[in-house]
Amino acid sequence: MQTEKEIVIDIKGLYKSFGDNHVLRGVDLEVARGENVVVLGRSGTGKSVLIKIICGLLTQDEGSVIVLGEEVKNINRKQLEELRLKVGFSFQMSALYDSMTVGENIAFPLKRNFPNLSKNEVDEKVDSVLNSVSLLKSKDQYPAELSGGQKKRIGIARTLVLRPEIMLYDEPTAGLDPISSIEINALIKNIKEEFGVSSIIITHDLVCAKTTGDRLVMMFDGVVQKQGTFEEVFDSDDERIKSFYEYNFT
Amino acid sequence: MQINTVSKKKYFLSKKVDSFFAGVADAARFVGDYFTQLFKPPYEFSEILRQCYKIGVDSLPLISLTGFIIGIVFTKQSRPSLSDFGATSWLPNLIGIAVFRALAPLVTALICAGKVGSSIGAELGAMKVTEQIEAMDVSASKPYKYLVFTRVTASVFMMPLLMLYTSFVALLGSYINISANEHISISTFIANAFDKINFLDFKAAVIKATVFGFTISMVACYKGFNAIRGTEGVGKAANAAVVTSMYLIFIEELMIVQIIGWFR
Fold it and tell me: Percentage of residues in chain A with pLDDT exceeding 90?
């Protein structure tokens, strides 16, 4: 008997426009618990807008976004903050607080959300999560002193410290050299295994998609064009999908 | 494949008018949030203290120089007019009234609009365009409370103190100029300077400084929070923070002077 998977993100008929620019035009997407879903597509197809709607940074024009059983659009500010503790967001440019050290960056959301934690408890959690991303040695450095790959890892660590159930990665390998990209891909896989999180990974890097994704979703012009495993998605006669593959691999 | 799009947005009046009122409503909400946060602990005391230091102590050199020079120049320029009537002994009274009733609050506010307003606008603008504010938001770290509430509160506390300090250095400058030309003891100068100043003048100056402090930091935070389009947006936010708060300071000055006038 096949057990039904728990759906942690359920998106139906999602529309979003900025003025006359119709970015999302009816997106449907489900993410199961423990699943890594990679959303692929060219720049400007609304991939980042999609995950910003999921965590409530943007509001959709139409459609439903249910995250961990909550309709994001309908919940109040307090409920949204509670939901956000369960949804980590890794930004494309890392978005580290440049006036704080790495340790302070990671401690910041902990101190803000759990003011009763002692200094030792905060330190322990910061050290533990820095260990997970192999950057404990950078604890006292400032973001300006880190490489692009290190910044990405710290950005991910800062979200992991809150022990989210869902991770949203916005272009995790963009702008990184191949070695750093491999490290980030390995980290994303490791996070899934170690922390048991479900993830949406926004990327146009097919190596990242193939390495990290259990399922791929190909978006064009604001709609989901095709989804399935890597092989299923790219076994296609669609010229746009073929050219996307060829751009990355030939 | 047919693609549906949401029907075209309809405007209440016109796109420009609608967006103007939407902007006003957004700004009002932004200001209103401050008063909501006043009743929601925790109050971020350590960050407020850090901002008090940045806004207050870091502004002292510029305010000292400006206040001192204003005291000297205002005294020097006023002397010939009073001298024509043989009334140079009234200089301390004149300076006292001018400093407390107008110069100190206004000069302090304008200096802080330039120094503090641009600094806050640029800092928060840079945080906005590099997604640091969004990063705080998505980790439920309440960026408004941490970034806006602390800066505005610190500014509200520090501006009256800076205004009193400006008054002190302006009077000091004035005394140096007067004592170089006339024989006057410091105690006589102080007695004369405060002779025509009453408690209402003092209260009015403190109220003005408090209102100006709120305006400068609130405008700067709002402009910073709404910065867009990269480094150009940061520059625009800093610039708009200074220009807008200067406009508002002059309007508020006029309104407060009118209101205080009713109580005289």
Answer: 64
Chain A: give the shortest CA distance to residue B225, in Å. 14
- Test the B interface: residue of A20, A86, A89, A226 with most B CBs within 10 Å: A89
Query: Is A2 a domain residue?
Result: no
Number of structural domains chain B divides into:
1
Strand partners, A170: A202
Please check whether residue A1 lies inside any domain of the structure: no
pLDDT digits (tens, 9 = 90+) for A92-119: 999 999 999 999 999 999 999 999 999 9
Please report the pLDDT score of residue A174 as a whole number. 86
> A residues 176-215 near B, CB within 8 Å?
none
Q: Does A18 touch chain B (CB under 8 A)?
A: no
Distance in angstroms (rounded) separating the CA atoms of residues A26 and A223: 6
Question: From edge to edge, which strands make up the β-sheet containing A166-170?
Answer: A87-90, A166-170, A198-203, A36-41, A215-220, A223-228
Domain that includes residue A158, residue range: 7-249
Chain B residues in contact with A112 (beta carbon < 8 A): 139-142, 146
Q: Which CATH number covers residue A153?
A: 3.40.50.300
Residue A57 clears pLDDT 50, i.e. is over it? yes
Domain-located, residue B4: no
3-state secondary structure of A41: strand
The answer, for B142 touching chain A at a CB cutoff of 8 Å, is yes
pLDDT of residue B87: 87
Task: For residue B189, name the pLDDT band (cuts at 50, 70, 90).
Answer: very high
